[in-house]
């Protein structure tokens, strides 16, 4: 069975609610084991054990959150060269922008040679039902792609 790892940070509640929506969507695919961890609790062993990775972060000061950067710093060298080609995706909670968080994560993940499986989902301001649906769709599409081996 394939494993999908969702790693996120929240400084409040929004990105956690976004992660829950992605998880709900992913769990509609019975052929995939879904593991959800906060950045502080996740490490290289989780990433190495996963067939696909979805990251979630707020945008803080035009960048990914410090906790997401800490997570990526801790896993980078342990995973470099071992996860190339595995699919990944990203969701970002932002107040007014979100693009700085996207580009900062993409730059680092490019170094791991992961394969982008979907466009990033950015939620600016409050989380609306249509965005929750988009996040559930991200999780469901990613998980079914993993199960089918097409990502
Ligand atoms: C210290 C700090 C810096 C922030 N910087 C940005 C920013 O650069 N761009 C932006 O769009 N939102 C920014 N925000 C707003 C957060 O990204 C937004 O409120 C987000 O939804 C918070 O998610 P969370 O509740 O999961 O922590 C900032 C918030 C904080 C607390």
Which key features would you list for this structure?
single chain, 151 residues, seven-stranded mixed β-sheet, 5 helices, 7 strands, binds flavin mononucleotide
What string, H for helix and E for strand, traces the elements in order?
EHEHEEHEHEEH
The number of distinct β-strands equals 7
Query: C-alpha Rg, in Å?
Result: 14 Å
Would you identify the regions where 5 or more consecutive residues have pLDDT less than 50?
A: none
What percentage of the residues does DSSP assign to strands (E)?
A: 25-35%
Structural category is: alpha/beta
Shape: globular
- Mean pLDDT score, rounded? 97
Bound molecules: flavin mononucleotide
Oligomer: single chain
Number of helices: 5
Q: Termini separation (Å)?
A: 15 Å
**Major beta sheet, specifics?**
7 strands, mixed
Helix residue percentage: 40-55%
